[in-house]
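Dear H.,

Thanks for agreeing to be a second pair of eyes. The structure we're designing against is below in token form, covering all 348 positions.
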């Protein structure tokens, strides 16, 4: 089967505004599902207990990572520490001297409890290779349950401020990206930083734009509401081959600690979404129709559209949670989903 090019992909997608004719959010909808993806979902449903549960609890503090050996074939990986948090810069070997003015900071998913998988490292490497003039950095954030949000989030917010200041000094544009729980973190960091900016200084809309923040967010199948109260979760559970209601409730409990589940620092759906529009931060995203977290992701997308936040979203029916991570295994939907992400990030 031939691999679709980005031009082919753009013709396959049906771009349409989500809520109204002139919506600020463009939704690209797909409904197809190939035989091999059906097969993967069948076996995933039978192996999910092994696939989603962490092998062991991470200790207190920020874990030091070992980059997966497969990406060293095409990329260099260098480690640095900023505000006591390990960062891993991924750059393609073939472009050692290329100039970069765009930084993608990637927060990997895993229920806030697992370090990056081989698929995460490979996605970071592909972004580094294919998003022109961009460098990709994996952020190794502290993991639950020994590092719940009340402990970890303030440290991550400090890191966020430092990275934004460094980018401003270097003239870099920043994109924050993440999948699942990582998508939750990037949304929460930006929204909380904006809330702090407004609360501290009573800034006007023009002044908010002068404070360093990312140009855009890419949220892949993000976890947006830790109350896990959306009735869509129960409706979709029979179709989701990877996640179960009990599992997503357990991961939410491990991350939230003693914070209320409606706290906007852990549930971005309860934040003041309009601040993103005022700061001119675009929010892009991906949702899958067989993902029990997708109803909350769609609710966030609706709020973005209602408040005038701009962005592009891919919604692919009959796809499981974080289906784009299946691209290294030759899954067409994974390849084309990653191709769509790259095409959006290239425009930033």
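And this is the sequence the design step returned. I haven't edited it by hand at all.
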């Amino acid at each position: 089967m031939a691999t679709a090019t980005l031009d082919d992909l753009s013709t396959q997608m049906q771009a349409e505004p989500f809520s109204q004719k002139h919506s600020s959010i463009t939704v690209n909808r797909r409904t197809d599902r190939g035989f091999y993806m059906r097969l993967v979902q069948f076996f995933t449903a039978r192996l999910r207990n092994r696939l989603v549960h962490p092998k062991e609890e991470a200790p207190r503090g920020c874990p030091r990572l070992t980059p997966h050996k497969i990406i060293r074939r095409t990329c260099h990986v260098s480690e640095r520490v900023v505000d006591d948090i390990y960062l891993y810069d991924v750059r393609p070997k073939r472009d050692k001297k290329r100039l970069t003015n765009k930084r993608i900071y990637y927060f990997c998913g895993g229920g806030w409890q697992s370090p990056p998988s081989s698929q995460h490292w490979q996605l970071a490497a592909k972004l580094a290779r294919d998003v022109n003039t961009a460098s990709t950095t994996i952020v190794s954030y502290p993991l639950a349950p020994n590092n719940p949000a009340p402990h970890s989030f303030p440290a991550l917010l400090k890191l966020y401020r430092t990275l934004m200041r460094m980018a401003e000094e270097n003239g870099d544009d920043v994109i924050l990206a993440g999948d699942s729980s990582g998508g939750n973190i990037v949304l929460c960091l930006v929204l909380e930083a904006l809330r702090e900016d407004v609360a501290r200084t009573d800034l006007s809309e023009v002044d908010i734009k002068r404070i360093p923040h990312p140009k855009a967010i890419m949220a892949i199948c993000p976890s947006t509401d830790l109350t896990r109260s959306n009735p869509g979760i129960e409706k979709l559970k029979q179709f989701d081959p990877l996640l179960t209601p009990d599992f997503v409730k357990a991961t939410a409990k491990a991350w939230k600690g003693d914070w209320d589940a409606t706290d906007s620092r852990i549930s971005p759906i309860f934040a003041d979404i309009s601040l993103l529009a005022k700061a001119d931060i675009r929010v892009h995203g991906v949702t899958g129709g067989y993902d029990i977290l997708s109803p909350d992701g769609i609710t966030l997308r609706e709020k973005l559209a209602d408040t005038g936040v701009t962005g592009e979203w891919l919604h692919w029916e009959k796809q499981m949670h974080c289906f784009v991570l299946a691209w290294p295994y030759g899954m067409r939907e994974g390849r084309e989903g990653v191709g769509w992400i790259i095409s959006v990030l290239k425009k930033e």
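Two observations from my side: The chain is about 40% helix and 20% strand. The beta strands are 14-17, 25-30, 75-82, 85-92, 102-107, 134-140, 173-179, 216-220, 282-288, 311-316.

Warmly,
E.
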